[in-house]
């Protein structure tokens, strides 16, 4: 990857630049956050002309290494006001890497009300009219682009909520089966909408393979790395069989499954929505219980969920979405949850933020608890069409809480808290509080150690060791997010020494480097620090690294745990 492409939407011009030396060793999150930190004024309005939207494949994207198909997108977030990186599967990362594009930077805002489409090919990037796409939701956009260019075209698009610059809007990425993966969190779809880009199409016809400096060493490391993925019980057995939704019963047993807008830690109807039920339902109906989100995925934690007649409903049906709608919003029918998931893919909103905001809407009395059909109507008719109610909801959980005067509003830095209760699993609470991007479980997934006992064990109900655990995992995750690898490679990397060594060997073989484990750790530390510095310059301080107050006085059954970290204990996170 030897070029950086800038698209200036103010002038409607495109330029191609060589990769600056200081960016040469970066990819994915490391590169998007570096570019945002260098080029975006921290105090700018996220939807204004000075914000930039950056796409970057990871260091290993486009290579034959397993799990290396993630694309990072970065900007200043309109939802949190912080720096933001969100990575997704699909075909775009590998296509951009094959075209030699290390970063695609979109800057400025166009004059007028014209909508545009960026078309990326081996010859460069052209700015096309998107008049025929305006007002369409994501699946219609993808279908139109397939009709125009054929099934191999890569597509990144926004739905109507993105056009309307709603803070829950995501950027949807076409996957190998013409369905959708998402740059979900942080409202990056609103940033793309502000720049009046409806979609980005990628045609990599004629592009060669991604060059590898030492193919023999690469193949050897790739073999060891892939074996470790398949040997680990989580990545090699649990996730391929039951998907991420295997966690419903595990978290319910642990008392950390947030239920009815974080009132309880266990859900009475967990068996109706758990991974085992989902698996049996999919198999009985003739769907696919394992499925990859990009070429080269061997974990295959995704699935294709179908209706009773075998018709497609949704894919990439994740634990966090099923938890949010099933336990937190009390919807008991897995089909209703699946239809909601499909609708969120289609209109283009983050399915975690979407599920949490719908729970908040139930708390506010807008929707009855457990009413899946009404949730579908609200997604389709209100948020999807941008009605006044839809805009209140579509701007996220914090927006709903503020407009309706709610107290139990589970957000950190305005981003909805995901599927693990921080009172019963305290390590993930530290991650929610201190993440540079608002509440984000993937930033430092302590569930691995607190609940799954991967990489050791730290008692989830005690405070001891949680800050160190979260810090170490956040540093490691920042580095992994820079490689283009799926975060689930962390399971074998934490338990099987050869796995982490093989990951470093892959990078060294690809670029003829001699990185060590310490170098990778330093990379993760540097990324976190530059993101933290950006946030401080944007006006954030220690007081923003806190969980909502209700967690400290509402004890959650069955453990009757409360959030009891002091400010000093949380602030110690940044002592590195």
Automatic annotation (TrEMBL):
Residues 1-206 form the Aldehyde ferredoxin oxidoreductase N-terminal domain. GO terms for molecular function: 4 iron, 4 sulfur cluster binding; electron transfer activity; metal ion binding; oxidoreductase activity, acting on the aldehyde or oxo group of donors, iron-sulfur protein as acceptor. Keywords: 4Fe-4S, Iron, Iron-sulfur, Metal-binding, Oxidoreductase. Its cofactor is [4Fe-4S] cluster; tungstopterin. InterPro entries: Ald_Fedxn_OxRdtase_dom2, Ald_Fedxn_OxRdtase_dom3, Ald_Fedxn_OxRdtase_N, Ald_Fedxn_OxRdtase_N_sf, OxRdtase_Ald_Fedxn_C, Tungsten_al_ferr_oxy-like_C, W-dependent_AOR. Belongs to the AOR/FOR family. This is Aldehyde ferredoxin oxidoreductase. It comes from Syntrophotalea acetylenica.
